[in-house]
Design goal:
Strand content: 5-15%
Radius of gyration: 30 Å
Order of helices and strands: HEEHEHHHHHHEEHHH
Strand order of the largest sheet: 1-2-3
Number of strands: 5
Shape: elongated
Structural class: mainly alpha
Helix content: 40-55%
Largest sheet: 3 strands, mixed
Distance between the termini: 42 Å
């Protein structure tokens, strides 16, 4: 986290990139928690579309009738029956509709010696009938935050906070990430993604505030495991770091205790010890000066 780029200085926003990177571990949540389905197996397919179809229409015109709205007329010429013709025409219609924003009318002019027997409609199973919209802003954030997956926890920043205030939710997101059994690089990646996605909710300042202390917190957790009223490992150095966090004025006693998963009483004891150590250290330094 101490080497993270400031997302505000990036030339572009990487929301789509983050979601594409996270989609595989997110798939169980999307299928189960959002679509409400139970599945036995999923397999990711290539995102490259087949290039076997000719996507150059034979003729396209804008037509303006005297007594009705103008439309796009798409014409194809065929000399023989093509079993993929209905699919091709459906694809053309969607592409032309998106390009021109007008009604699309289509016809195939058949040039064969016998009448065509091509099907002109898609089977119901493949006919386009719309799509689902999954509004993350309406999904309870706890559905994602209670997960054991980094990617789901990160997604909770875009969900519905219900009656919780933003600072409380952001703090709990960081706590949950720290509670997972994960490497520091995994935590750093998750925080970087939080920094980017939080801009979609105007929470980037709040997330940035917490992320600035993550290297300190991770170091304390790895080298001086906090327990109720005691620390192990590099006690004095960790207490000194904890004191600096408190003196920064960025945390209330309650927020810092919650973040470090300590009681406020235990935190107060550690801060008292750190203050006394700081006072003694300064006194020793002053005594040593000539």
């Amino acid at each position: 986290p101490n080497q993270m780029a400031d997302p505000k200085k990036q030339g572009h926003k990487d929301y789509d990139r983050i979601m594409r990177e996270n989609i595989s571990p997110l798939l169980p949540a999307i299928v189960g928690k959002l679509l409400g389905l139970e599945v036995d197996f999923t397999r990711r397919l290539s995102k490259e579309l087949p290039k076997t179809l000719d996507l150059s229409p034979d003729a396209v015109f804008e037509v303006s009738p005297r007594e009705s709205e103008k439309f796009i007329l798409h014409i194809e010429f065929q000399t023989r029956d093509d079993p993929t013709m209905a699919s091709r025409m459906a694809l053309y219609k969607m592409l032309l509709g998106g390009l021109y924003g007008l009604e699309i009318r289509q016809c195939v002019i058949f040039l064969g010696s016998r009448p065509s027997k091509m099907k002109v409609e898609l089977p119901e199973r493949v006919k386009y009938t719309g799509f689902d919209i999954l509004n993350l802003c309406k999904v309870d954030y706890s559905k994602f935050q209670d997960s054991d997956t980094h990617e789901e926890i990160v997604l909770s920043i875009l969900s519905d906070f219900k009656s919780e205030n933003s600072e409380s939710v952001v703090r709990s997101i960081f706590q949950r990430l720290l509670a997972l059994e994960s490497t520091q690089s995994q935590v750093e990646k998750s925080i970087q993604q939080l920094l980017v996605l939080s801009q979609l909710r105007n929470l980037d300042d709040l997330v940035t505030q917490y992320s600035k202390h993550m290297p300190i917190i991770i170091d304390i957790r790895e080298n001086a495991m906090f327990k109720e009223g005691q620390m192990e490992g590099r006690k004095e150095g960790s207490r000194r770091t904890l004191l600096k966090m408190w003196q920064s004025g960025r945390f209330t006693m309650e927020a810092l205790a919650d973040l470090m998963e300590m009681s406020q009483e235990a935190l107060y004891k550690q801060l008292e010890l750190a203050s006394e150590e700081e006072r003694l250290r300064k006194g020793t330094k002053d005594d040593a000066e000539p």
